[in-house]
Amino acid sequence: MSPKTQRRGLLQQGFLLYLGGTLLLSLQFLLQLLGSTTTELMDALGYTFYLASCLSHAACLMLSTYLIASLLIALRPGRYALWIQTLLTGLMSILCQLDAQVYAIYRFHINGFILNMVFGPGAGEVFNFDTALYLREGMLLLAIGLLSLGIYLLTSWLWRRHGRAYWGWGLGLILGATLLAHLMHIYGAFVSRPSIVRSAKLLPYYFPTTSYSLMLRLGFHSPSDLEALQRGGSGLVNYPRRPLVKEQPKQLPNILIILLDSWNKRALTPETMPATYAFAQRSQWYTDHKSASNGTRSGVYGLFFGLSCYYWEEFEASHVQPLLISRLSELGYDMRAYPSATLENPNFASVLFKQIPGLRTSTPGASSLERDRRLTEDYLSELPQRQASGRPLFSFLFFDLPHSFELPKELNQRFSPAWDFADYTRLSKDSDPTPMWNLYRNTCYQDDLLLGRIFASLQSSGALENTIVILTGDHGQEFNESGCNYWGHNSNFADPQLGVPFICHFPGQASGRIAYR
Questions:
Q1: Is there a contact between 362 and 374 (Cβ–Cβ < 8 Å)?
Q2: Would you list the domain boundaries of the chain?
Q3: Which of 84, 92, 37 is nearest to 61 (CA)?
Q4: What is the DSSP code (8-state) at residue 411?
Q5: Gap between the Cα atoms of 370 and 380, Å rounded
Q6: What contacts 479, CB < 8 A, 6 or more positions away?
């Protein structure tokens, strides 16, 4: 067989493999829709659009695998190129499966933020997964890899039996689906048809065509008056908008800010968090407080700046600090942070606490429980020496255990039945939230033991009489309260993800529950 004939045969087999990989990925995209709440919005037009989009977008993503194989075949003909294409097909399918799981939880696709959380500083402190979950994911990804191998074997058999690549049928189907999907999206986006607009968001990095001006020129009229909103301004940070009005207080109180990551306000009960509940009863308890957002970065940023996290990049580049931190620095406060998860990812160390000398950005410990215990010990052990210095104190404590869903089995017994770990792959809109909710309550109870030690220490030493205590969460944590298959946070702006307890102890101020914001 001449090299030219060999190359032609390999290219045809590679094209068959490309078509098979496209069909596999299309099926994955279709299953993603069927497992989501978007099905409630779908109609015949929406399903037609989504099926065409699945095929065209899968073909687009898989095209890179065929192009790489074609390049290898052109350089050095051999079946190794088809094996590499099979490997790349499996990897592409696995990446899309992982993206689908991320989207099911957070309602956005894998991006730089997620990659930084996984591979950035302190990644092991941000995500904690049980070994059983790793094994289950491994089995799922292995199954996808075996399907890719099966596609290779099937397309090889088809080539040996028929000796055809089906170029015309394959290209015609892909190009037709692509044209149909983009034309339908032009219409769907113009009239804001939910079945088209919402289903398109399920596909990773899919940017179907929109053309409002073309539709208007053709005489169509949108049912809603859509106007593009453009952000004005020079891009320079003007914060604060007016100079801070300053007064020199006669006495400088100590300030203690305590944050619990992912704090669902339903957990603040005498059964789940008895020490914290008792402290809230003796303080000003804001029962309708909302976090600045549904994620850690935005929630903490909003707490300190009173602004949307939209401005994060501008503030980080301009080195603008929160007014609270700047003013406390001017007043000579001894400022310290005690974080469980790292302050470098998100980069709170730079955006919020750059003015704090010798800032502590992390806490030793192999788990969130160990780190929460360690930061409590460190805060309490350092407190007498700090008080003896005569300087006013600012302390920031950030607990992480409720966010991690990670507990030793012997500490996961108080509320049962409880999962051993948060298995998000088992969740759906019909799942019973009780086992996961009880696991969460058990983590809150363990942190409550630590908070109780802090409250008791402040009370017994008399420090509470001169300490402003602010206790809240960076954001909430949803357990499908809406019945729409929302779990965790960072996926919607309903009360379970935004509403958090907000407890303020002001020395000399009356306690009570406050129901307004």
A1: no
A2: 3-217, 254-514
A3: 92
A4: G
A5: 16
A6: 264, 433, 436, 437, 440, 487, 496
- What's the pLDDT tens digit per position in 303-314? 999 999 988 877
Q: DSSP states of 111-177 as a string?
A: -HHHHHHHHSTTHHHH----HHHHHHHHHHHHHHHHHHHHHHHHHHHHHHHH----HHHHHHHHHHH
- Is the entire prediction scored with pTM above 0.90? no
**Homologous superfamily of domain range 254-514:** Alkaline Phosphatase, subunit A (3.40.720.10)
How many DSSP H helices and E strands does the chain contain? 18, 9
Give the CA-trace dihedral at 305, 307, 311, 317, to 10 degrees.
-10
Measured between alpha carbons, how far is 468 from 504 in angstroms, rounded to an integer? 7
Coil, strand, or helix at residue 427?
coil
DSSP annotation of 334 reads: E
Model confidence at 335, pLDDT cuts 50, 70, 90, reads: very high
Distance (Å, whole) CA 422 – CA 479:
11
pLDDT tens-place string over residues 79-98: 899 999 999 999 999 999 99
- A 10 A CB-CB count for 369 gives 22
**Where are the extended beta strands (E) located within 364-514?**
393-399, 467-473, 478-479, 487-488, 502-505, 512-514
At 496, which amino acid appears? P
Give whole-number Cα distances, 488 to 96, 407, 434, 472, in Å: 21, 17, 14, 17
**Residue 191 main-chain phi, psi, to 5 deg:** -95, 5
Tokens for 425, please give them.
Answer: 């792959």
If one counts every other C-beta atom within 10 angstroms of the C-beta of residue 295, the result is 21
